[in-house]
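In response to the reviewer comment on reproducibility (Comment 2.3), we provide here a single inverse folding case reported in full, input and output, so that an independent group could reproduce the run without further information from us. The structure tokens appear first.
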């Protein structure tokens, strides 16, 4: 005969508290004194008691799932953000379901299905280019779970979001290159309709203006944050007669593509041109040359977004729209140097 599974009453008896206190300590630990919480956790471990998440979610009319909308799962930039989200959600007993919104099969109506409370308790969107019909469904309030944006955001800030100070990052990139003596500075932009592109470009142009410099039209290259876009910009740079001596690439991926394409043609970074990226993805410090770039606190960005979403889920009434802005850091490495060095 199999032994009975431990029950909440067993934990309460061992800890010397009521079953209600055990329930609060395990489901809402912040509402219980630390000493009581520790006793309950010790009793739960000793008895082998495990919370029945399915039953708890059923009582709360919750699914226990959080959907994460990511524009490109193949992009290594998102890995640390997802890790941060997962850490915060696991501590609150939520599971994470990741959806790649740019896959061919992912139609707007399919994305909209995740905005029903029967599918998820909340949504974190890392994609600021979601279709209008999806955003309309999310803001309708007709039983839709809360939606938080992370990294990217929507125009007019229709939803709460967590992001970094992209404009300040663009300004810091130009200031760093100008401080090394560069006066002909070029830039590879991101997608023209992307909010990150707008913010980073705005910051870079403010940097040019503050320093009394000008971004020449011929030194401004289009891109889409990809390796291929950086390589194309590299070919365009090579074709110029009056080349920029330094480049600000609005993503690390484009910086890698730019540098590798120049290397194929015998051009050295930073001897012939200095390069600054944006993001500080994991390979940036291992690339050759190690990339000077703007670091986004990606893990903390994910944690902050998840915590903000959890606060919306647990709120007894609707919360006001909130925007959290995290700062970036300039990581100076081997891809930039003084122009006369």
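Designed residues, in position order:
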């Amino acid at each position: 005969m199999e032994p009975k599974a431990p029950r909440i009453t067993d934990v309460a008896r061992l800890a010397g508290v009521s079953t209600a206190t055990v329930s609060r300590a395990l489901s809402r630990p912040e509402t219980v004194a630390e000493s009581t919480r520790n006793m309950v956790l010790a009793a739960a471990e000793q008895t082998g008691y495990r919370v029945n998440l399915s039953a708890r979610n059923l009582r709360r009319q919750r699914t226990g799932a959080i959907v994460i909308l990511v524009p490109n799962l193949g992009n290594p930039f998102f890995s640390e953000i997802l890790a941060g989200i997962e850490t915060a959600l696991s501590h609150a007993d939520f599971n994470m379901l990741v959806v790649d919104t740019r896959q061919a099969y992912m139609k707007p109506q399919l994305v909209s299905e995740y905005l029903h409370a029967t599918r998820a308790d909340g949504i974190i969107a890392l994609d600021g280019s979601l279709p209008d019909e999806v955003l309309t469904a999310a803001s309708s309030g007709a039983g839709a779970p809360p939606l938080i944006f992370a990294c990217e955001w929507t125009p007019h800030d229709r939803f709460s979001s967590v992001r970094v100070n992209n404009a300040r990052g663009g300004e810091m990139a130009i200031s760093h290159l100008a401080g090394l003596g560069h006066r002909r500075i070029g830039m590879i932009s991101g997608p023209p309709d992307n909010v990150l592109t707008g913010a980073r470009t705005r910051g870079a142009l403010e940097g040019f203006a503050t320093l009394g410099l000008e971004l020449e039209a011929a030194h401004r290259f289009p891109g889409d944050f990809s390796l291929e876009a950086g390589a194309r910009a590299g070919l365009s740079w090579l074709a110029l007669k009056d080349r920029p001596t330094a480049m600000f690439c609005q993503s690390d991926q484009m910086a890698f593509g730019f540098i590798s394409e120049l290397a194929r043609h015998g051009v050295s970074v930073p001897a012939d041109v200095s390069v600054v990226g944006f993001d500080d993805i994991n390979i940036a410090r291992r690339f050759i040359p190690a990339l000077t770039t703007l670091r986004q606190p990606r893990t903390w960005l994910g944690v902050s977004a998840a915590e903000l979403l959890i606060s919306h889920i647990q709120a007894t009434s609707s919360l006001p729209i909130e925007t959290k802005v995290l700062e970036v850091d300039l990581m100076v490495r081997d891809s930039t140097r003084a122009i006369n060095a």
